[in-house]
């Protein structure tokens, strides 16, 4: 499902339930040794997804530990992102010669709990997110906004290394002409930073879709000469 949101060079693997064949490395198992069963299952299944994506890139399997602020630690030369929510786990990886950063997020396509939208949305976003969409293009816009902001953070943090609050990025969305439950979004970072490659980071372009009771968002930042670059 998520692969339709991604450029060339990215490798996506996903699961819609627990993967009993996924196995953790000792260092990974130590991170969730005392966690509830549900957390251990999502952590294990998504790492199974990550290892299948590594294989798709022609790489040997490797542990995915958590670094500062829980940022996933990928093998050298690899960028990626992981997400899990009820009924869905996904990992997207790429070589850093193709993409410099990836951020993905999945959420149930259900309204946010009362009060959450007001705490994550800027005024213009609030009006958009409160406008209901029914019929063929039905999607919970408040949840879509939330998911896209999470994808922004997961792209931003590994790239820039600083925190980003919900009111630090202004998002706007479009719907594809040929597919009313799929589209694009733009994130303008109101407090720009500098990426690990020395380039300014002022915003991101992403894609979204609503399907199978889920809202899924993805951002892939192309490397200047990589396979993920739109002009290549
Ligand atoms: C970290 C955060 C984005 C995770 O999102 P979530 O919807 O709660 O959870 P998901 O299941 O989708 O994603 C979890 C995965 O995110 C990844 N992740 C966690 N911290 C991360 C970070 N600092 N940078 C990048 N990825 C991170 C991990 O791979 C994690 O999986 P794991 O725990 O199995 O290793 C969220 O909890 C958070 O802290 N948000 C606040 C910051 C924010 O969103 N700001 C908005 C800016 S516009």
Automatic annotation (TrEMBL):
CoA binds at residues 39, 47, 83-84, 105, 150, 154, 164. Mg(2+) binds at residues 105-107. Residues 101-176 form the 4'-phosphopantetheinyl transferase domain. The keyword Transferase applies. GO terms for molecular function: holo-[acyl-carrier-protein] synthase activity; magnesium ion binding. Residues 28-94 form the 4'-phosphopantetheinyl transferase N-terminal domain. Signal peptide: none annotated. Keywords: Magnesium, Metal-binding, Transferase. GO terms for cellular component: enterobactin synthetase complex; plasma membrane. GO terms for biological process: enterobactin biosynthetic process. Pfam families: 4PPT_N, ACPS. InterPro entries: 4-PPantetheinyl_Trfase_dom, 4-PPantetheinyl_Trfase_dom_sf, 4PPT_N, Enbac_synth_compD-like. Its cofactor is Mg(2+). This is 4'-phosphopantetheinyl transferase.
């Amino acid at each position: 499902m998520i692969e339709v949101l991604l450029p060339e060079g990215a490798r996506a693997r996903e699961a819609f339930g627990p993967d009993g064949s996924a196995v953790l490395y000792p260092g990974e198992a130590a991170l969730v040794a005392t966690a509830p069963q549900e957390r251990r299952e999502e952590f294990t299944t998504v790492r199974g997804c990550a290892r299948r994506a590594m294989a798709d890139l022609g790489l040997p399997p490797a542990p995915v530990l958590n670094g500062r602020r829980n940022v996933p630690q990928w093998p050298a030369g690899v960028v990626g992102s992981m997400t899990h929510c009820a009924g869905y786990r996904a990992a997207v990886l790429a070589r850093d010669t193709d993409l410099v950063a990836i951020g993905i997020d999945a959420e149930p396509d259900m309204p946010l709990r009362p009060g959450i939208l007001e705490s994550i949305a800027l005024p213009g976003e609030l009006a958009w997110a409160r406008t209901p969409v029914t019929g063929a293009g039905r999607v919970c816009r408040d949840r879509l906004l939330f998911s896209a902001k999470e994808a922004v953070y997961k792209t931003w943090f590994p790239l820039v290394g600083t925190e980003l609050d919900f009111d630090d990025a202004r998002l706007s969305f479009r719907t594809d002409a040929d597919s009313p439950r799929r589209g694009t979004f733009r994130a303008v970072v109101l407090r720009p930073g500098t990426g690990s490659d020395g380039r300014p980071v002022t915003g991101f372009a992403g894609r979204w879709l609503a399907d199978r009771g889920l809202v899924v968002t993805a951002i892939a930042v192309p490397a200047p000469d990589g396979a993920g670059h739109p002009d290549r």
